[in-house]
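tokens incoming
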């Protein structure tokens, strides 16, 4: 018996990267999996792989979470299938990396929609049921850039700071009802995040595999951890921001990130 046998996990951004590996590790613990992403072909492939490898029911829902319509599509589909979401993984998200004045306003709005609005709406939709059943789990994916200002990724860093704060507050409320909330703050991870954001994927410090981040995220949820910071280097960075003034941390980030932007 795994930790999530006879439970259902909904994983956004689950067709690849960290989300895919979180889904695999939840499946290995016995959970039935529902993957969510925009691309039907990638979702179908991922669902087939997880089902074949882990022997659990795995399905998927195609939805663009950057829009309210996409979130509604996901919620309506879950309801129509009469699914009980026992574990919610808010992994879907992306970043934009450039001089702030060059960033497209619509793209920035879409990013906030995925990273903040969709996460909040899905949590609002599914966590009350967990509280009522006195059992549940939430994994929210933040970022190491959520601890301080992130020049050249200004809005992205702010969205991840929201996720971190949101997770701590939610955890304090729902823990007495048997619902666990774990926030994961990875640093550079071997996914397509960098290419999508416009940031070079080469020579990133403290880089870690998506598979390892996924494993640590699920282990963190099982053990009831509030926060998972994958990797010693990232732990050091996260810990150091507690002692540095925010303006100093932002200045250091600017020096590091600017070198990779130009």
């Amino acid at each position: 018996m795994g930790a999530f046998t006879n439970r259902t996990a909904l994983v956004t951004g689950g067709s690849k990267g960290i989300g895919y590996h979180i889904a695999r590790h939840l499946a290995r613990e016995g959970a039935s999996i529902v993957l969510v992403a925009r691309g039907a072909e990638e979702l179908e492939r991922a669902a087939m792989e997880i089902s074949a490898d882990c022997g659990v029911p795995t399905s998927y829902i195609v939805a663009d979470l950057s829009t309210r319509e996409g979130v509604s599509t996901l919620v309506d589909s879950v309801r129509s299938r009469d699914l009980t979401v026992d574990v919610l993984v808010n992994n879907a998200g992306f970043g934009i990396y450039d001089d702030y004045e060059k960033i497209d306003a619509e793209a920035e709005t879409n990013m906030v929609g995925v990273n903040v609005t969709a996460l909040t709406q899905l949590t609002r939709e599914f966590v009350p049921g967990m509280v009522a059943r006195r059992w549940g789990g939430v994994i929210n994916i933040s970022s190491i850039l959520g601890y301080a200002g992130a020049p050249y990724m200004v809005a992205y860093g702010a969205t991840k700071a929201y996720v971190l704060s949101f997770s701590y507050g939610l955890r304090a409320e729902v823990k007495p009802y048997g619902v666990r909330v774990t926030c994961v703050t990875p640093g550079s991870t071997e996914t397509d995040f960098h290419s999508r954001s416009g940031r070079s994927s080469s020579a990133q410090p403290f880089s870690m595999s998506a598979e390892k981040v996924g494993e640590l995220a699920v282990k963190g949820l099982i053990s009831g951890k509030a926060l998972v910071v994958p990797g010693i280097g990232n732990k050091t960075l996260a810990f150091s921001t507690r002692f540095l003034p925010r303006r100093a941390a932002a200045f250091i980030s600017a020096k590091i990130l600017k070198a990779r932007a130009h």
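note: The beta strands are 8-12, 32-37, 58-62, 87-90, 136-141, 179-184, 189-190, 208-209, 227-228.
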